[in-house]
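Quick start: what a row looks like.
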Amino acid sequence: MKDIIVAAFVGERFLLLRHLFREKGTVYTTFVPFAAACIIYKIVFHMSYRIVAVIYGRPDWGFLNPTYRLLAALVMKSVDGVVYSSEAETASLVVRFAKRKINIPPVLIDPKEWESWDQSAPVTLPALRGKKLVGIIGPFVGTNELAIDYLERHVKEFLEDIVFVLVGSYDRNKHRATEKLVFVGYRKDDFMGIIKSLNCVLIPRIVTTGSPMTKMVVAMAAGVPVVTNTSEGMNIKPGRDAIVGKLEELPRLTNELLSSPEKAKLLGANGRKFVKENYLTETHMERLTSFLMPQET
C-alpha cells in the first residue's frame, strides 16, 4: 500500500482525521497553509504517494479570493482525493474538480463523550420552577451577541411564562439578567445537565457567517427539541428532527411547540436519534478509512 501525504489547506481542527492518523502508521500528515500544500504537492508529484487534500474553513479564510480558487481547482484535479467539511460552504467552489471526494461533518461526538453526556442528570434551576425554559447557547461574544439583541427586541412575542436561559460566557459589563433573561454562564461540569433541564433550545441565526451546527448537535444530543431558522449543513427533516422556519416566525413556532408537550417530547427523541446516527465519530471512521486507504487491486 502506498503511503499518504495529507495536506490541510485551511484549518487544523479535523479531529476525525487526526484520530485516524494516530491509528494508521502509513499516513503522513502535513498541516500547512494552502500555498505550502501546493509546493509539497509539486515535490512529491512523481513519487509513489497518494495525496489527499483537506478543506476545512470559512469563506473569510480565502475561498472568496479568485486566485486562491484557481490554485485550489488545479490541485483538486490532480490529487488522489479530497476530504472536505460540510460547514465550509464555499468548498463546493473547488471540490467539484476532485476525482474522488468525501464529505465529513465538522462536528463529531466521540463515543466516550456521548456516554458522559448520557450520564449527565438535568440540573435543577430552583428560581425558575414552573417556567418554560428556552435555552440560547453561547458564547455571547462577537456576532453571537446578536442573539441577545434579538431576544430583547422580540421578548414580548413569546409566551408570558417563558424564561430564556443563556448558556455560555458573556460580558458581565454589557449584559444584565432580567426577569425574562437569565445568564448562567459556562460551567463545563454541568453544561450538559443545564441543557437537559431546558424545554427547548432556540437557535436564531442572525447573520450568514459561521454555522450553528455545533449548538444544534449539542442540543439534539441532549434530547432537547430545537427551534431554528437554519439547518444548513445538516440533512435533517424539518418538523421531525427540529422545527425550522423563518427568523420572524421563531416566536410563534416556539410558542406552539411549548404548548404541545407531546410534540416537544417526540421532537427531542427524534433529534437525539438523528445525532446518534449521523454525528458519532465511529460512524464516519470506517467511511474515511475506506476512502483514504482503498483496497489495492
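That is the whole record. The longest strand covers residues 3-10. The chain has two domains: 3-106+281-292, 113-278.
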